[in-house]
User: What shape does this take?
Amino acid sequence: MAKLVIMGGGVAGHTTATFAKKWLGNGHEVVVVTPNSQWNWIPSNIWVGVGQMEKSEVTFPLAPVYEKAGIVYKQALATTIHPEGREGDDTPFIVIKSTEEGANGETEELTYDYLVNATGPKLNFDATPGLGNGQGQMGDKTVSVCTAEHAVHANEELTKVFEKAKAGERQKILVGTGHGTCTCQGAAFEYIFNIEHEAKKAGVRDMLDIKWISNEAFLGDFGMGGLHMKVGGYTVSSKIFAESLYAERDVEWIIGAHTSKVEEGKIEYELLDGTMHEEEFDFAMLIPPFSGVGFKAYAKDGADITDKLFMPNGFMIVDAKYDAGAYENWKASDWPETYQNPSFGNIFAAGIAFAPPHLISKPMTSPNGTAINPTPPRTGMPAGIIGKAVAHSVCDMIKKGDDVELHKASMAEMGAACVASAGKGVLNGTAAAMTVYPVVPDFEKYPGTGRDTKYTFGEIGLAGHWIKHILHHMFIWKAKLKPGWTLIPE
Amino acid sequence: MVKEELNFAKSDDFNLTMLPGKFAKAMRTCKIWQLFRFMVINVKMLIVVSKSH
Ligand SMILES: Cc1cc2nc3c(=O)[nH]c(=O)nc-3n(C[C@H](O)[C@H](O)[C@H](O)COP(=O)(O)OP(=O)(O)OC[C@H]3O[C@@H](n4cnc5c(N)ncnc54)[C@H](O)[C@@H]3O)c2cc1C
Assistant: This one.
């Protein structure tokens, strides 16, 4: 009987665990270690952040789902990895620390035959002075929508701003990225247009100055170096698409910006030309930069071997080409395919937890040496597809032996669909629906844009909005393992 | 006065982009057109999904 341990029960980890259990059956053990008792469909946090959904609509308790599936569930944080076991016992293990009420802080050693790291990002608020509280959590000057709890808090603060606006006090809203190396611009993009939509509905739009700030070199970069799409017989850059959307909704933008400091009601930022500026706000939602969660790994003799498993940014080393060098040398084939750690063949990463070989956007640095460029996004669809491919590989290894051919899921051969929806009503919302194929541009296969423009497109309208609604219900249905869940694609 | 064009004057950035006119805006919420687009986008997304697995 083999034992698969999955660290992290988010989009990637949940997909790996549920498919692995389905394919392995009761003959093998699947264990999930994840700290939250509630599963969160993160994309819908945006609607929680503008008061259009309750937290309970985007979360559900994990324990009953895992019980039904026969998955062992440990409500805990994984802390260290011991891939060689210990002196006198080669069985690899991890150490976990309980987050369960009543057992909080208790540690346990958990052995494994196969290990999947799907721990997503650490929300690194403290990378920007004032954005964090100095203890690894969000500070009290800005808000975030990265977790359901953050989104509830964001809505409370937004409500206060709307009330002041209603009372005749002009309010400044700032939304975007809180550091020069952030990713996840898409989430902030969706949030700003939801705020704009709700402000109109509440009759306070005229009292709000809404501004975007981001580390993208151009609007519409989205951490993917932008994309090109067919519109009205032309093939146009997402820069034009995004700028048009912002101008239409009267949302000004600051781009190429590294937020270097957050103070009460004010940020300091550096632009790509090296100049320093300030921007005031009454309400700011700034996405923090992401890093790996910060595991330590130890050899049998207790020596620190963290660098065999993780890059300095905390993300896990997999089968990527990490020495591709300068931008000019980057290729689609630099991107990982199997997500297997090269030092330990029984360890994989899935979702945001794997270390990308390099950026997708063009690297940019200010004359002061500050890196101001988005890091690569790894959105829900790639996270799910990678999670499933990893589950497939591990199941094959368990059933057929470790030298089987592994399943592949390169982001250079995978698309992503993204729907940024404003409003929640079925007839009065609009959405920008976008697909990109592939996520990582392949200029050898698709010279010119790097992507297949037949399947890379964007358009605004009710249709995208309906799709967003359907996706919300479909993915929660799937995550709850309700009938037909395997038919719903990642 | 063309209402849809007013934002061009609000900033230099806005001035250099494109803005949708009345027709483009109306099509975004025209239920029949959007039902058609719903089907087209779904098919395209399904192709992207199937090419990605
Ligand atoms: C506001 C917002 C909106 C978004 N909207 C979209 C969208 O519309 N479309 C889209 O495709 N993507 C969207 N994304 C991105 C999407 O949510 C992520 O791509 C996806 O969640 C990544 O999956 P993951 O499993 O890698 O990480 P996560 O889903 O973050 O899961 C990581 C899990 O690991 C757990 N964990 C952390 N540390 C440990 C530890 N030490 N031990 C054990 N477990 C641990 C965490 O608690 C969490 O459960 C959005 C993201 C945000 C923040």
